[in-house]
Amino acid sequence: MTHTKTPWSIDSNDLDGTWSIGNIEHDGDDWDVCTVHSTKANAEFIVRAVNNHDALVEELENLKKFIKSYLQFHPETGSPADSFTQKALMLIYPKAKL
Length: 98
Fold this sequence. Notes:
3 strands; 23% strand; alpha+beta
């Protein structure tokens, strides 16, 4: 099962602090993904996060590739005591015990 395709948007407000979020044109129909019982700002935050998720993950993968390449070609930075190296390795290998 996959999630509802992006982009998501705020579909409606029930005037009681309830906001519907969904993909307005999912397979030709309106498709509500969730209802937010909060402020419009929170609903907008959820929509912004969902719509930017794929781009963020892609950029983090690019950053990981850059850091790996940087450490490979700048061994002087790669000292285990180096703060940059420790932070970079934690980003690249988050589950590793460093």
